[in-house]
Design brief:
The complex is a heterodimer of chains A (about 110) and B (about 120).
Chain A (H helix, E strand, L loop, with lengths): L3 E4 L2 E4 L5 E7 L5 E7 L5 E9 L2 E4 L6 E3 L9 E3 L8 E8 L8 E2 L3 E5 L1
Chain B lengths: L2 E3 L4 E5 L4 E3 L2 E3 L4 E8 L5 E7 L5 E3 L5 E5 L4 E6 L8 E9 L8 E2 L3 E6 L1
Parallel strand pairs in B: 2-12
Antiparallel strand pairs in B: 1-4, 3-9, 5-6, 5-10, 7-8, 8-9, 10-11, 10-12
Classes of the chains: A mainly beta (about 110), B mainly beta (about 120).
């Protein structure tokens, strides 16, 4: 079955530590996205990528970094500069067309130790 | 800039009664509109979309939505709600002139269906 896989499902970060969240898709989608979800705030866009080796900052990119070396993969690193990283992180992908829906993974919940 | 408003944080409905979740949008040009549902600790699931054509769009799990251009609204409806419909619902918009799929999401509406 085609879909998006996020791992791990739960992740704990120590002070001063960088952590990387994995996102892999086998839908052959060009575009991929990372969102942060906090209670009562809906989805906020962190980074997005329309094509391999290219990505753009979203609304809340500070303290995060991404790479897009392969079409299938779009990992997100939460750096130590992100002072409030506790949240639910969602990865999505879509065809590179405005009338197509985004498909979501099941998320990674990041907490501070 | 495009935006989406979901005016109700929570909607409460008894099982078997009609369910409506409201969404209004603001875009320049023609909109592409989407509804998603999210269950606890899960990703968003696509329910339905409006691109063009009939104003009444049918989607998954018995949901439908009505596009109203004059009121810039895209309300989600279900004739008879189930307890299993209790979840968080998101409306999203893109513009016809945008060539790719970057969406603007609303803040979400929590639906609670009581037995």
């Amino acid at each position: 079955d085609g879909g998006i896989t996020q791992s791990p499902k739960y992740l704990f970060r120590k002070e001063g530590q960088n952590v990387t969240l994995s996102c892999e898709q086998n839908l052959n989608h060009d575009a991929m996205y990372w969102y942060r979800q906090d209670p009562g705030q809906g989805l906020r866009l962190i980074y997005y990528s329309q094509i391999v080796n290219d990505f753009q900052k979203g609304d809340i990119a500070e303290g995060y970094s991404v790479s897009r070396e392969k079409k299938e993969s779009f990992p997100l690193t939460v750096t130590s500069a992100q002072k409030n990283p506790t949240a639910f992180y969602l990865c999505a992908s879509s065809m590179d067309k405005g009338n197509q829906p985004q498909h979501f993974g099941d998320g990674t919940r990041l907490s501070i130790l | 800039a495009q935006s989406v408003a979901q005016p109700e944080d929570q909607v409460n409905v008894a099982e078997g009664n009609p369910l409506t979740v409201k969404c209004t949008y603001s875009v320049s040009g023609n909109p592409y509109l989407f509804w998603y549902v999210q269950y606890p600790n899960r990703g968003l699931q696509f329910l339905l979309k409006y691109i063009t054509g009939d104003n009444l769009v049918k989607g998954s799990y018995g949901f439908e939505a009505e596009f109203n251009k004059s009121q810039t609204s895209f309300h989600l409806k279900k004739p008879s709600a189930l307890v299993s419909d209790s979840a968080l619902y998101f409306c999203a918009v893109n513009r016809e002139t945008d060539s790719w799929g970057k969406l603007q999401f609303g803040a979400g509406t929590q639906v609670v269906v009581t037995p």
